[in-house]
From TrEMBL:
Gene3D superfamilies: 3.40.50.2300, lambda repressor-like DNA-binding domains (1.10.260.40). This is LacI family transcriptional regulator. It comes from Microbacterium sorbitolivorans. The lineage of its organism: Bacteria, Bacillati, Actinomycetota, Actinomycetes, Micrococcales. The keyword ATP-binding does not apply. PROSITE patterns: HTH_LACI_1, HTH_LACI_2.
Amino acid sequence: MVSSPSRGTVTMSEVAAAAGVSLGTVSNVLNHPERVRDEVIERVSETITRLGYVRNSAARTLAAGRSNTVGYVMVDISNSLYTDIARGAEDVTSSSGMYLVVANAGVEGSTARQATYIDHFVENQLRGILLAVFDNDVSGVARIRQAGGRVVLLDVATDLDVDACTVRIDYELSGYLAADHLLSQGRSRLAFAGGLRSIHAIGERLAGAERAVAEHAGATLEFVASGDIQATDGRAVARELAARAPGEMPDGIITAADLVATGLMPELLARGFRIPDDVALIACDDNKSGYDNVVPLSTIDLPGYAVGQAGMNLLLDEIRDPDHMHRRVVLKPTLSARESSVGRAH
């Protein structure tokens, strides 16, 4: 009886010798079992298990010129939008016989790390890549196309012209919904807080808020910028607003991101402001990292899971259909009103 080698990787030739079959028979058992008799499949499978043979997917990819793996490069794993996208994409791949590899570029140095992961995926001949774009940098598309790869872009600006399918969320609508909700609660002096207008997602949200305010006579909106959209930025914005004269304090605040609200809220409460009695508060991106608040936070739900599903379906269509045509998909956010803007239910 042939036993497993004491060291080293078990080869397909060793499996063939131990099972008493040819190398081609082992290959057929692994790749074309319909060509092999049941008793031979059983004997080879038992030998594979006993020896601990592991298939070399890299070698198979090299031989076949393709893999059964697709990749997803996300911007920020700490933001639940991007993990929701991953869940949606993975559910599609798992039902289609494909595998999904996820890479996190991270906000700090994201452009360079994004390029590194793209190059790694291309070198390993992944069938396609879902790319969550950082700061509208689409330079990676050309590298993927030059290598014969497929790519779908996620979370892109509205005016981006690129050779790929795109899936984006209507951020302008998210800003509109947030402002319109506060205005419907009787608020008229609104502030939009957090981030920079030059960042496309924030600029689009701000534009939507401006559109809602323009529909309400007498309502005003100011933009309070910050360097980033973290809790520390929210605390800084709260201190700036709280230092104003009473008549200059907004009665409704929209934060560009939920994390900004998680910093802003406790700072305002500590300074004696009641939420929502004195100041109603709503955020714009439903980041689960911002769920732990003293007052339950109203927010705009972003359809990240649906973005992942739509993006992966488009990618698989491009992989499989030689007549594939690029498409632009826009998904709509929804309002989730909680205590920070409507008060406690009685």
